[in-house]
Design brief:
There is one protein chain. This protein is α/β, with parallel strands linked by helices. The chain contains 14 helices and 18 strands. Helix 2 runs antiparallel to helix 3, helix 2 packs antiparallel against helix 5 and helix 3 packs parallel to helix 4. Keywords: NADP, Oxidoreductase. Belongs to the aldehyde dehydrogenase family.
Length: 457
């Protein structure tokens, strides 16, 4: 895949970039390692000052970078601006809390025969982040903000279709005052990642992306015995029980499915509805999906823009077409309109069986799978019948049902009567084939630290 900005609304190539050579990659790793040797000695106060400055710059420039994100991957302009604002919030969160999160943890010195004993969180060094295109800034910032505040330095291998967003982030941190080399963007292809991972000066890696990409990076890092954090997508359940506010649930369901044009790992994808609520919920849901405006993502009136890549649209089409040929029913959407750009309409399908690919595979586009179940046990069974385990939603006002969903939904995140999203304050990550490790909160900043035991006699 070329490193290029290709407008998904038109298919036009706007700008291309050359990949770094092996020698340039080597030099970048060297700069990062040399910088870490001094940067790790900076204080939390110094790092926090630079991080707050980055947040201020991002707030001031959010409209400009929003247009860049929209041009590169097709998210609506409003959602791009909101993403930039969320990044600034995340930066401030770690600027304010890193010192507390990474404070020394004293233990009972007498119990271990010491005059003083404690656990100390210390940076690891150079960390490689392999990031996806769907949230060009937020996916990176939720790694970069805690990593830099912990005293690590970062190398970014971003998706090849968002190079301008990637370069903006490096420039942002430099202009904010971070020492040169603290955060570098590597414009490289996927085949060049192994060179970075196998370099002994690279201490760890984090990846958000597809399961095959995660397997590849994790395998290399396993061979090198390097720490990794993986977030590999999901096929989130959205369960609706009879006691739910169906009007609100249906409205949130639409947003949960088509957010980011349906291209979000934590977007609700499988809508599992109790039979007593099925008729009314499905009516409301389909009605609201049909009302969405698909079009130019730069137009403020647009609700759903194009998919980010042509191949992405093809993948969505194949899953829907295969399901329909096998007996699934399309309630709305289901076929793309002719014309330029990689658009696909908001779609709802039902009558899905276990033999269909769509039953098990993640659909990365604005397509909702609708299931009818007879009771709570059946809802949990369908919800958990996937290899993924990232996020989940349950809609019920029954306290006993809420308690069961909180415990028995197999996911890293359970949201009850609300849409799954990520907050700096909450740990974020998955189980099963959605990955391992956690981002955000205190847990996220500690992932790439050495928890060193210190004993003083």
């Amino acid at each position: 895949m070329p490193i290029a900005t290709i407008n998904p609304a038109t298919g036009e190539t706007l700008k291309t970039f050359d990949a770094l050579t092996s020698e340039q990659i080597e030099a970048a790793i060297g700069r990062g390692h040399e910088r870490w040797l001094t940067y790790r000695r900076t204080t939390f106060a110094e790092r926090a000052g630079w991080m707050r400055a980055a947040a201020e710059l991002l707030d001031a420039e959010k409209d400009d970078i929003a247009r860049t994100m929209t041009a590169e991957m097709g998210k609506t302009l409003a959602s791009a601006a909101a993403e930039a604002a969320k990044c600034a919030k995340g930066m401030r969160f770690y600027a304010e809390n890193a010192a507390h999160f990474l404070a020394d943890e004293p233990v009972d010195a007498a119990a271990v025969g010491a005059s003083k004993a404690y656990g100390s969180y210390q940076s690891l060094g150079v960390v490689l982040a392999v990031m996806p295109w769907n949230f060009p800034l937020w996916q990176v910032v939720r790694f970069a903000a805690p990593a830099l505040m912990a005293g690590n330095v970062g190398l970014l291998k971003h998706a090849s279709n968002v190079p301008q967003s990637a370069l903006y982030l490096e420039d942002l941190f430099v202009r904010a005052g971070f020492p040169s080399g603290c955060f570098q963007t590597l414009l490289i292809g996927s085949k060049q990642v192994e060179q970075v991972l196998r370099d002994p000066r690279v201490a760890a890696a984090t990846l958000t992306g597809s399961e095959p990409a995660g397997r590849s990076v994790a395998a290399i890092c396993g061979d090198e015995v390097k720490k990794t954090v993986m977030e590999l997508g999901g096929s989130d359940a959205f369960v609706v029980m009879p006691s739910a506010d169906l009007e609100k649930a249906a409205s949130v369901a639409v947003t949960a499915r088509v957010q980011n044009n349906g291209q979000s790992c934590i977007a609700a994808k499988r809508f599992i509805v109790h039979t007593d609520a099925f008729a009314e919920f499905s009516r409301l849901f389909v009605e609201k999906m049909k009302a969405l405006k698909v079009g130019d993502p730069m137009d403020p009136a647009t609700n759903v823009g194009p998919l980010a890549t042509e191949q992405g649209r093809t993948d969505v089409e194949e899953l829907v077409d295969e399901a329909v040929k096998s007996g699934a029913t399309v309630l709305c959407g289901g076929s793309r309109a002719e014309g330029p750009g990689w658009f696909y309409p908001p779609t709802v399908i039902t009558d899905i069986t276990t033999e269909m690919r769509i039953y098990l595979e993640e659909v990365f586009g604005p397509v909702a799978s609708l299931y009818r179940v007879d009771d709570l046990d059946a809802a949990l069974s369908v919800a958990n019948a996937t290899s993924f385990g990232l996020g989940s939603n349950a809609w019920t006002t029954d306290p006993d049902e809420q308690a069961r969903f909180a415990v028995e939904l197999e996911a890293g995140n359970v949201f009850i009567n609300g849409m799954t999203t990520s907050y700096p304050e909450l740990p974020f990550g998955g189980i099963k084939r959605s990955g391992y490790g956690r981002e955000l909160s205190a847990h996220g900043i500690r992932e790439f630290c050495n928890l060193k035991s210190v004993w003083v006699g």
